[in-house]
Design a protein that fits this description.
single chain, 84 residues, mainly alpha, 2 helices
Length: 84
């Protein structure tokens, strides 16, 4: 049973050619992993009534979200990356 994959380009060796670079994928995966810990740190700061710790966690989370958004935008740009 084979699927019709006309919408996806393949290389000469049969590998899928996508606009994502390994760097973008790492930014998205590691960034989402860091967001979980920053969320936990922010909640802990709220519970412990430590506004500085909460503020640092929130600012760091905003920076990570911006990095993830930029990585996703780079993935969607067809002129960037190995397949671009």
């Amino acid at each position: 049973m084979t699927e019709d994959r006309d919408w996806e380009e393949t290389s000469d060796r049969g590998h899928a050619m996508v606009p994502a670079t390994p760097r973008d994928v790492v930014h998205i995966r590691v960034g989402s992993f860091i967001l979980v810990f920053l969320f936990a740190l922010a909640v802990l700061g709220i519970i412990a009534r430590a506004p500085v710790m909460t503020g640092i966690a929130v600012v760091a989370a905003v920076v990570v979200v911006i990095d993830i958004v930029l990585a996703v935008r780079r993935q969607k740009d067809r002129n960037v990356g190995e397949a671009g």
